[in-house]
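> call design_seq(struct)
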């Protein structure tokens, strides 16, 4: 992904993290609370099999739609 698109995705991840603060269910693995920003980045990596910076530019809309889905369906 080129630098501009990478920045767009990172901003979208940050916005999603802001919206998910306090909305993720508790986890025994995170006794001090879950990090919503890391959650979004890890979910993107799990879904696409690579970091958001490595995803091809052609898939930027698909990544953004997936991030929106995460915000609508916190888990």
């Amino acid at each position: 992904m080129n630098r501009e698109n990478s920045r767009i995705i990172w901003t979208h991840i940050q916005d999603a993290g802001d919206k998910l603060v306090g909305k993720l269910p508790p986890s025994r693995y995170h006794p001090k609370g879950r990090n919503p920003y890391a959650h979004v980045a890890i979910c993107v990596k799990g879904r696409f099999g690579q970091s958001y910076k490595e995803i091809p530019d052609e898939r930027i809309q698909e990544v953004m739609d997936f991030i929106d889905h995460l915000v609508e369906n916190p888990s």
